[in-house]
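dumping this here so i dont lose it
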């Protein structure tokens, strides 16, 4: 596994962040393998770990070409990712996975 590089590298990683009404991120969507302009790889799981370490408790999704049940179990064990979307999944499967994961996270918060 690699590590997160500089802030500039993270900014060019083409992540998606959905801000809530208070301006705080509510959702962060990351690719697992992010190539920077200088051909370095940043892992979405490294970014999610750093976000959690800094106290971010919003919803984090990871998109990965590797989304077998074993891969999903690995992501789950990390404890920093709320939902894994396989790039091979249909839109309906992705929608269902996001809704299920979001509801599970929401129920744990209560």
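and the seq i came up w/
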């Amino acid at each position: 596994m690699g590590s997160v590089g500089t802030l500039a590298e993270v900014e060019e990683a083409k992540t998606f962040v959905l801000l809530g009404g208070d301006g705080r991120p509510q959702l962060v969507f990351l690719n697992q393998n992010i190539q920077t302009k200088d051909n370095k790889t940043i892992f979405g799981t490294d970014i999610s770990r750093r976000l959690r370490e800094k106290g971010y408790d919003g919803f984090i999704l990871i998109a990965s070409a590797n989304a077998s049940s074993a891969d999903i179990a690995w992501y789950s064990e990390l404890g920093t990712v709320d939902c894994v979307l396989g790039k091979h999944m249909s839109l309906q499967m992705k929608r269902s996975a996001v809704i299920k994961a979001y509801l599970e996270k929401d129920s744990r918060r209560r």
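Confidence is low (pLDDT under 50) at residues 1-13.
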